[in-house]
Amino acid sequence: MKNVRHIFFDLDNTLWDHRKNAYLTIKELFKNQEISEKYKIDFEEFHSTYHIINEKLWEQIRDGEIDKEYLRKHRFYDTFLNFGVDDASLADYFEHHFLDEILKYNELVDGALDLLNYLKSKNYKLHIISNGFQEVTERKCILSGISNFFETITSADSVNIRKPRPEIFEYSLDLAKAEKDESILIGDDWIADVKGAQNFGIDIIFFDVLDENPQEEGLKFIKHLSEIKQYL
């Protein structure tokens, strides 16, 4: 891939292990509020339900069906409601503390730091394009110790548009002063990252972290971040 000079990364679950960090954060909040004792709810069941609800809400926000405030109001409220607990103030407590507390946990995806060092040694220019909230995207990079690897960091909130829409890719490439034919995206979301990049017209490496095993002809995909070295 001789032409590639600019590498754009998705952040959550591609480099920054959102699933693990969210699990640890919710477990702490769950314990602090004595949810098991008060409501006889098993944490693992609670977390599994939250994960399903949250993933669905993020799909809706990605597709423009809901906004950020709707997601923030409903992900914990709907989870508690599933267990028969109709308590908006409790849900608000979880939501308010979640975004701050999650930044205490900054686990990276296995192999992320090694890969970033490798790519930097090859003189690639590295960038972030995230669908996450602006108020936490840069802090995730700083607190996890990876911010210095990146020339630019684009969060969807800064342009009020989320992947897979082409405008966020256009904005990020303009910010990076990068051309399409010298750029590639690495991400784990089939719609936001793969289809978004393909429709915009830049190359993509799909991080198949959930073992979706895509059958698309010619698609570059990996199961572990270290495998990117075979392409770059």
Automatic annotation (TrEMBL):
Any Pfam family the entry gives: HAD_2
MF GO annotations: 5'-nucleotidase activity
Gene3D superfamilies xrefs: HAD superfamily/HAD-like (3.40.50.1000), Putative phosphatase, domain 2 (1.10.150.240)
Signal peptide: none
Keyword Zinc: no
Keyword set, alphabetical order: Hydrolase
InterPro entries reported in the protein's UniProt record: HAD-like_sf, HAD-SF_hydro_IA, HAD-SF_hydro_IA_YjjG/PynA, HAD_2, HAD_sf, PGP-like_dom2, Pyrimidine_5'-ntase_YjjG
Protein's recorded name: Noncanonical pyrimidine nucleotidase, YjjG family protein
